[in-house]
Amino acid sequence: MKIYTKTGDRGETRLSGGKHVNKADPRITAYGEVDELNSSIGLAISFLRSRQDLLSDVAGILEQVQNDLFVLGSDLADPSWPQANNKTPRTSEKMASALEPIIDRIESELESITFFILPGGSIEASLLHLSRGVARRAERAVVSLSKSQPLNPAIIVYLNRLSDLLFVTARLANKRLGIQDLPWRK
User: Fold this and answer.
1) Which of 45, 81, 83 is nearest to 62 (CA)?
2) Is 4 part of any domain?
3) For residue 37, is it within any domain?
């Protein structure tokens, strides 16, 4: 099978199930944002892996997240929700719930903060903060889509929880690398 279909040459693409839509369709925008998020996390993982001794556990967590994001993308690409379609993987509430004990475990390793922090510090933390920003943008695109088309509400919950995970992993990267969180100053 060839990678190019030439469908996009006319500004269209196909959803799961074969329906042709404009590439600017909100559904395409939403899963495009999820795809960008996955790529952003992949970049962060590359840098985390270079710190094997300190951050390999975080890289492992985020590799599972990348797999989860493929499920989210598939879910968004199939507009048949809530009808059953056994071919399309669907986002489940358990996916977001699985992130919560990880967030709790990471938070237990961190000092609590009573101030806003600037996204930055180490390269690894900066990339995780960048991924958090992309996650928030993906979440906004999915919420916007949900106002005009039916979609699985577990997707929004997962993206919201994921941004929390990315925030604490960024803080954890700084801590393990001996870099202080930078407080926001008025």
Assistant:
1) 45
2) no
3) yes
DSSP conformation class of 152: -
Long-range contacts of range 153-156, CB-CB < 8 Å, 24 or more positions apart?
154/90, 154/91, 154/92, 154/93, 154/95, 154/96, 155/72, 155/75, 155/76, 155/91
| Number of domains making up the chain | 1
**46-102 pLDDT tens trace:** 999 987 789 999 999 999 999 999 999 999 999 888 886 678 899 999 999 999 999
Strand ranges inside the chain, DSSP E: 12-14, 20-22, 117-118, 182-183
Residue 8 lies in a domain: no
Structural domain of 75: 23-183
Q: Which residues pair with 12 in a beta bridge?
A: 22
CATH of the domain at 128: 1.20.1200.10
Q: If residue 173 lies in a helix (H) or strand (E), which one and from where to where?
A: helix 154-176
